[in-house]
Protein 1
Amino acid sequence: MRKVLVADDEHNIRYILDFSLHAEGFSVLSARDGNEAFAQAVEEQPDLVILDVMMPGRTGIETCRALKKDRRTAGIPVILLSARSSREDRADGLAAGANRYITKPFSPQKVVEAVLELLGTPAD
Amino acid sequence: MEPLGGILIVAVAATAAGLLAGRRRPAAAESRSRTVLGAIQRFHALRHLPELAAGIAREAVDVLGVGRAVLYLWSDEAGAFVPRDSCGHGSGPCPDHLDRETWQAMIRTADRVGPGYLCHDPASAAAAPPHLVVPLVTSSGESLGLLALGDPGSRGWPAGARGEDLVVLAGQAATALESAIVYDTLARRNEELATAAAKLEGLDELKRNLVANVGHELRTPLTSIRAYTELLQRNIADLDPGSLEDFLDVIANESAKLSDVIGDILEVGRMQEEPTLPMDETTDLSGLVAGLAHGWRERAASAGIELVVAAPRRPLLLPVDRVLMGQLLTHLVGNAFKFTPAGGRVRCELAETGTAVRLRVEDDGIGIPPDQLGRIFEDFHQADGSATRSYNGQGLGLAICRDIVHHHDGRIWAENRPDGGARFTVLLPRRSPVVLAPEAAGPSSLPFAGGEFDTRLLHWVSGCLGVRTATLMVPDDERRHLVIRAAIGLPAAVVQSSRVSRDEGFAGRAWAAGKSLLVADVTESEVTRREESEPRYTTPSVLCVPLRSADRTLGVISVNNRADGRPLDEDDRLLLDSLAPRLVRLLESYGEWTDRTRWLGDLRGTLRTTTPVGHPGQETLRGLCRETCLATARRIGLTEGELGRLAFALEFYDVGLEEVPQGILRQPGGLSEVQRRLVRGHVHASLRILAPLDPDPGVNRLILHHHENFDGSGYPEGLAGESIPLGSRLIRLADVLESMLEDRPDRPAMSLDEAVAEIRSEAGRMFCPRLTQEFLHEVAARAGRITTLQDNRASVACLIRQTHSGRPLAT
């Protein structure tokens, strides 16, 4: 079963992503801040990581950069979620190595579609 | 101005033509007229007022053949004619200031010569030669100035044909002056517009940041609302009633949060109208509460909650930031509403104790989980779970409330009420003006001689608390007894004889226990029976607080005899407790500063770059950075006075910096307006704390600007380049170096090489390039000591970690 790591300091967001991804057959790990997310990514080696940008401690952007820099996690696709939608913010996110930058408010369905797109459907 | 210039030239030509034509003149007269014409054309070519003034005086001397000419212009500011320029050799005094009365008096008694008045300077000796003073009047009759001619020489005063030349010259000079003045005004207006435009750009930037933050604040609750709605839409057939209810609750709660955020944003919008941080602002807290209460009542009514607001009817003035206080109240009361169900009660009370102002907001709602009570004021604190209060700050949280209270040197705490609900209490100290005996401040670089610092410190404490007697006792050399180092409000005999040992007396007990001690009634205390060692009390209560730094006690401060005659109480103790860390910092800084100035005095021009300050073995990073800064200052040649001021500013500039702003600075995503005010306010806070100690205004200036950046991107005023005081530029270097070489929560200490490289790369942006070079030279001279210090600290830190992890220490 494929694993997705979801990092967001807000319980509601973690819950809804958990719910939606479970429905699609993924197992979901969760983290509450950037440091926890990085540690879990290294240890659990998920297939994909979803990072909220505005988190305490390390931001999503910093965590993404760290993940992409570390050999152990560099190959894991990353989706950034953020309420900051300006072109500069999007550019920053993608420059940090994110594979996708999704703005909030987001549609859970769209997030799931992005995950499937990046990982391929199970049949592939 | 071209068309007007054209008209002038025509007018000039017409006048000149009138002179030349119509009468038969000898050749000499013709050439003289041409000279006049030439002079007039030269006037009109000069638009710049100073040049024109010089030009007029010069032409007058050349054309009229007098020895001296002085041009006066009317000045509205001075309310008089003021000399602007002159030409020719001086002969005889000329008044340097002619107001209308004096002028009228002069011309009343003067003889007329042509268009001018033969005047004697009223202030000069009777034998002094007169001047011929010609008024310069525009065609509209406005008297712009005066042309004073002196020393007519053998030809005498201009009369006849020369007199006509004078008339023409004077008239044209007046017209030329008129246009030049208009140009001058235009130029000044342009400058003002440019400044205003720059200010607007600054505000624009502020607004852009605000918009970005606002966007985020609004989108966060909206995210949950949208996502859960979508979830419901897709899955409604498959969800069990429990989940259904949960999801709908989330949507409802987030909608309410969204509504709150919008309210907060409107508040912030109102705050935008006051971009400056006034230092001496006094706010009427009663008025503020009354104003906010209107909105509260509406909200209470619609929520079915009973609201009680108890505040004094008359104004309650306190030197606090009105905007920040408004935010504090709004948030505390808003929280109370949020966590109180319909039918419940919220109470907001504002009261004065003798020494402080107390604000209390309580409700009978769901209360605070007991294990969270100590932590709810932390940044990003979040309590998970459905029934508990979640203080996750969206926009303004309790962390900000704490920041605001600490910014004003107050205390805030939360407790649960015995019959349910929460109670938040805020104490804000009063700060009465401190009246000090005027000490003769000599020209020495030591602002505080002898015990002056201690005395002022005590005055400040007594002002904050409203007491009449305060003493500072310090341990003697053997650290077995406390002796009085400074006291106010006590008879001298008592001061001389007072000495308590550890454990004895109230101060001694406070010292031994390491905690503050409040004795409500000394007559009931057995300790009082040892009266020969105690200062005498006129009212029966006393409060002692030990001043502790790390593990050492610097001293004990005792206060008693409240000005209003009532006994000291718990509120006073809490206040003094909250002031204690500030006092410790001040005393420590003062100690280090006296050490350093002694070192500076020893230097006497020679740079002893390897002499450690203070005691070897107790070298600190802070000490090293400050020593480097002072060595740089001496190197570039600051005077003794400047060095003394810089040394003082170095010790005290960050006295206003609490741990809190670090939390704000670490926060991702930019600062809200409130946070920005708090961060910038720490500069003002340092100054405010020092104010009762009355340091040199030069010191204040150094501290005020120590956070400006060379490129103008700093605060509080955005000064740039050389307009930033030199000492402030140096403090900036030392401050940043120190922070780079320290461990921070979000990054470990940099190596010296990294720090130096970073500083070098910031030359021109954060730092003055010239000073950076000098500073880094001094840093290099201390490289060995700095690296040793860092290595020692690293080993100690490693040791501590190993100890805590239980792993055996490496042998």
Protein 2
Amino acid sequence: MSQTYLVTLEPVEPYFFGAEYTFSKDDSRKDSSRYNALSTYFPQQTALLGMLRKTLLIQNKNLTMHLKGEWIDSRGGKKGNDKNYHEATALAGNEAFSYERDVNLGIIENISPIFISKNQVNYIINAKDDGYTPKFLDSKMSLNGVNKNTFILDGYNAKEYKDDTFIGTNKTSLNYDDIFKAVQTVGIKKAKDAQTNEDAFFQKTSYILKDKSKFSFFITLSKELSWSETFVTLGADQSSFKLVLKPTSETFETTFRDIFKPKSLSRIVLNSETLINEQAYSLATFILGKRAIYRQLKDRHGTKSKRYYLLEKGSVLYSDDIETLGAKLSQSHLQKVGINNFTIIKGL
Amino acid sequence: MSYIALTMGPIIDTLMLGRKTSEIWMASYLFSSFMKKTIKELKNTTDAKFIVPYVDDEEIFNDKDDGVGMFHDRFILQSQTLSIKDVEKIIQNQKDNLSKMIASSIKADEQKVKKFFDSYLQTYLFQSEENFKNPILDISEILDSIELHTPTLEADEDYLKIFLNRDTILQSQLAKDSFGKKPSFDSIEVIASQEKEIENFQAKNAQKYIAIIHADGDSLGKYIKSQTDVSKVSKNLFSFGKKASQTIKEYGAIPLFIGGDDLLIFAPVLNNDKTVFDLVENLSKDYKNTLDTTVSTLSFGISITYYKYPLYEALQKSQKALFALAKSYQYENTKQKNAVAISAQKHSGQSFDFCIAKDEKAYEDFTSLINNVLTKNLELPHAIHHKLFKHQALFKGIPIKRVADTFENIFNEDIHNDKFKEGLQNIQKLMETLGTDEQAQDKLFSMLSTIKLIRGDR
């Protein structure tokens, strides 16, 4: 029988989540690695998935931590085809996540988008159109050759700097600085002869969460777990987090119900990074958003996959046919890992 | 008669792809060149009358422009006959030409490159027959909204990223046309140090820092409203662009983009005895004189980073400094903007920032102090910053008139009354001008950190 848990992740040290540019192998550099790397604020949903799968296997004693790495050991049977292997596959699946097709995730039925919990309040990125009034004008516009009636956001001032904000379940608002604190560290890469030089100096920006804030998300599993607390590692640096699971009847949807104020026009607000295909895009009248590049690690050497261009959390999509647009965005193989999660807000 | 306007992008996202000066140059120049060619075709083949930008100087349409992108990311025109579809056709033609050039440069399939750029390049048009009271301002506001639209992108390869590679850029037809030959670009180290021959880069510490400057006109709307002849506005901004380009090069900096009141510059923090603040001063004078106005001023966001610091982050820093600090700066109860915002990140990891208006007394004191330190007219104690910081709580609790006595008590060794006397008096004067509250002291410490960096301290 399915069980939903509220999972909290509390960093025990500054964390580092790799983005497009870190210190690892990189197709844009032929010479020595970078001088500086900047962590992202949030882990990718796929990183959470990987962490959960690994944790399930460790807790169930299917994964062995060897000196050279971690893997599913054969225990008595043929390699890759024994009781341990089958148990591990049933628990966590045996395929890498793909943006393009459904994969077996074992007992993991659903992961919600990640959010912040701080002082008993839960926060997600606010809609990017907060404070603006969408409207159509009596004139024409053409967006890369697609003609429409002119759409503007009344109240938008291009000269005014405005960072994204977080909105809480108590309707309060927080800035990034209220939650995240940058931690700058410097290091020196030593050469084989143990000598250092000016070029070996590097800087890294990690983050810590302020005021005992935590990362949170919901997971639904097809069976109950016998454990509720452990320490896990996440991110390029294998930063440590305390993971706590609490059974709950709440979901992401019930937690953040009615969090966005309706406007005159119907719209979709993205709660997670979202892959939008051409069919969905053709239904959107206007997208107020930001694109980000997402890639996956293909192997233990850090080689990265092709680039996927996703819209960031908080992006807003306007459409005349909001229900059909919602249907096109509802890619189940992505939604079950917390990608392509969105809220439809009908117009007034 | 209808107005047709174009806004194009994504400029900032494209700039962020660059890692070296040549790459960032091309990321910006691509758009300027695209706009130049589009406007040229419209001007030569249609009845378009351009309101923005200024197009009456035929020289600006030459392919050879020595790498200076003078075309903004927008135009506004009037026409009796043009439709949106007509302009779309011309734009598509230019997109095809650009894709062809890039495909040839990176030896990739032209159709695949074309498909990528048709989605990547955002060319958004607006058309209206409305009789706008002030077309430049009214239409610009509409374009501000339209340009926020984010299209999807699906591609196996990022052809722009492949193209924005130094070796590819130097061989590209676009770069050769711009410079009249295969160009060469100074590396960040060379721009920062102003040393042409870099061997193991043993420059002085201050010469290892690069300033990325974003400048933008303040209250340009007010200025435009004050002008009876709208065409003069574009002409004046164009004249400012030409003058600014000269000023920037004279300082030893590189103008990456000059479009109206919008400037993007890579500059050495220090060049002989001149600093980036001298460049700011001269550009502000150019702006005031060519526009012949005090209604509109120039604000600056400047990031100062070690030469190895990622350019895309340094660019973000300077942009944030301009829009989050300088453009929202308020002082003396009623005044605003006309500010310089500094955001510095040292090689040691230390970072600091501050913002000050160019007509504040403290800015005059600050720039005068820098000048005196560099010309060795006076000296500052090496650890002045730390000494003052130690007594921050004390200074916070005293009135301005007690600052002089407090300085005397703290700096009471022989060397303070001798070698460092004048330097300390200058710092005291700066503190008295800024104030002693916590915010004012933080500003003072950031200013002192800036002076130390320029002086060459580690």
